[in-house]
Amino acid sequence: MAKIIVVTSGKGGVGKTTSAAAIATGLALRGNKTIVIDFDVGLRNLDLIMGCERRVVYDLVNVIQGEATLNQATIRDKRTENLYILPASQTRDKDALTPEGVERILSELKEEFDFIICDSPAGIERGAQLAMYYADEAIVVTNPEVSSVRDSDRILGLLSSKTRRAEQGNDPVREHLLITRYNPERVDHGDMLNLDDITEILSIKLIGLIPESEAVLRASNQGVPVTHDNSSDAGQAYADTVSRLLGEEVTLRFHQAQKKGFLSRIFGGRR
Amino acid sequence: MKLLEFLKRERKKSASVAKERLQIIVAHQRGHRGQPDYMPMLEQELLEVIRRYVSVDQEAVNITLDSEDDCSILELNVTLPNSKDS
């Protein structure tokens, strides 16, 4: 039986899709049969980040409305074995998603996969609530910035009240904090919230910390999830996050500013 | 001398300002967490009813909803102006 994990944040542009793609890729690379679903109906982007935008024929809404089967709509990733993508619709509006339709799809996928990653749209409207409704675990993506932290707290409120687990009185959704775009130098200068402040304010457990990295834009330019770039800081940080998600103890990295040597000061070391 | 004071002035780090602001706003948000959607409307209408009889400020009315094991308690606290004054 698959574990359903929603990647959510409230605020837009904090790295939900990047994280959903990177984590799904990491899980598949570790041998788990994984599918990542784009819930952002009308503004799909997961297909671009995964590099399969030209292979989209059918989408989530087609499956919900019975115009295509799940098999027809899911795209098998070309780079990674065990990895599948279910894209969102670009043309329909978000009312095309129904709770019954989503439940039917998820329960069908649950039989076949180890992990189902739901990439939530921004906001707290219908699409975001449907993406989280059936989740077992939630990864709350947060930037070290006031509006992102506040919105994450709003999302935590919804996770504890507007999910199936909450409504049926089951064990609550397991919440994990993923801090992205972290810049240790700015934290040292006192101009960026540090990770202890963020975990203290939100009071949930940290599952990973992704440094601000040039590798992320490079990855999305190419449509290759950043996990594949295992020489980059961000790629390694996502790999660590995946290990923790699988229950391993991994020491935190990339949260301290690198001391720059003489040469790298002159030539500007780039990772 | 002004310049010297300006230079000596310790600038408060912006991250600690951010933290303080967030702690306040998050505490406020959590106070409203889990309460039914109709609470803001209920508060507003209760305030209107009270104002029909006595003139009170928004701040003089305090409404809280507590839930215990099997029941919820709606607590309404109104600070009425001193009757001698009116």
Question: Approximately how much helix is present in the residues of chain B?
Answer: 40-55%
**Separate helix tally of chain A:** 13
Q: Report the total helices of chain B.
A: 3
First-last Cα distance of chain B: 55 Å
- Radius of gyration of chain B equals 21 Å
Mean pLDDT of chain B: 79
Helix share of residues of chain A? 40-55%
Name the biggest interface: A-B, 19 and 15 residues
Distance between the termini of chain A: 39 Å
Number of strands of chain B: 2
Word description of this protein:
The complex is a heterodimer of chains A (271) and B (86). Chain A has helices at 16-29, 46-50, 60-64, 70-73, 99-112, 126-133, 146-159, 164-167, 184-188, 195-202, 214-222, 233-245, 262-267, and strands spanning 3-8, 34-38, 75-76, 83-86, 115-119, 137-142, 174-182, 205-211. With 271 residues, chain A is an alpha/beta fold. In chain A, a hairpin with a 6-residue loop joins strand 3 (75-76) and strand 4. The model of chain A has no long low-confidence stretch (mean pLDDT 94). Chain B has 86 residues and is an alpha+beta fold. In chain B, 48% of the residues lie in helices and 16% in strands. Chain B contains three helices and two strands. Chain B starts with a helix and ends in an 8-residue tail after the last strand. The A-B interface holds A 145-146, 149-150, 153-154, 157, 160-161, 187, 189-194, 197, 201-202 and B 13-16, 18-19, 21-23, 25-26, 29-30, 33-34.
